[in-house]
Amino acid sequence: MYPLPEPFALRERTEADQAFVQALYFSTREDLQQAVPDPAQLLALVAMQQNAQEAGFRHQFPQARQWLLLRSGLPIGRVVVDTAPQDLRLVDIAIIAQARRGGAASAVLAALQAHALARGLPLCLAVVHGNHAAQGLYRKLGFATVSEDGLRAQMVWRGAPA
Questions:
Q1: Does domain 8-157 fall into CATH 3.50.50.60?
Q2: Proportion of the chain in helix, strand, coil states, percent, rounded to 5
Q3: Mean of pLDDT over the chain
Q4: d(Cα 41, Cα 36) in Å, to the nearest integer?
Q5: Is residue 89 within 8 Å of 104, Cβ to Cβ?
Q6: pLDDT at 43
Q7: Which residues of 35-73 are buried (b: 16+ CB within 10 A; e: fewer)?
Q8: In what order do the strands lie in the sheet with 8-12?
Q9: Cβ distance 111 to 104 under 8 Å?
Q10: pLDDT tens digit string along 43-84?
Q11: What is the Cα–Cα distance from 52 to 48, expressed in whole angstroms?
């Protein structure tokens, strides 16, 4: 587990969290919400995309662990982390819109950086090109871009904790 400063905490994701995780994923897909005007089609498409994302995580990172990110005991996000012998990887972090820019992501990243530093591992992540807020945060916390493709930038942190 990665200790976070109050009022933040992590706890293992359970089946009982599925409704929150679905609502969280829906809230992060503004692109689909704007592109699909029919509510029934939108819900079906978002559910399909979420299932594909989760299946992709399980396939690519079968040992990854999922946590709910809490603020004052209430869920505000989800964090997926994979620990491998060669690195620590932030597979995904998503935070509800109302809680963004409130220090939650920075708290999670600082805890992951401390964990990686203590184990002598780089901390890796991928960020979508259009997510400028996340890219700015990652750069501010010392991450450097090591490669890019048409969709994402791969970033690595190897330095001292933020």
A1: no
A2: 45, 30, 30
A3: 93
A4: 7
A5: no
A6: 86
A7: ebeeeeebeebbeeebeeeeeebeeebeebebbbbbbee
A8: 8-12, 65-71, 74-83, 88-95, 123-128, 152-157, 144-148
A9: no
A10: 889 899 999 999 999 999 999 999 999 999 999 999 999 999
A11: 6
How far is 21 from 16, CA to CA, in rounded Å?
10
162: pLDDT strictly greater than 70: no
Tokens 């995309």: give the residue: 49
Enter the pTM of the model: 0.91
Distance, CA of 104 to CA of 23 (rounded, Å): 18
Quote the CA–CA distance of 159 and 146 in Å, as a whole number: 14
Nearest residue to 139 (alpha-carbon basis) of 153, 149, 151, 150 = 153
Here the tokens at position 103 are: 């220090």
Type of residue numbered 24: L
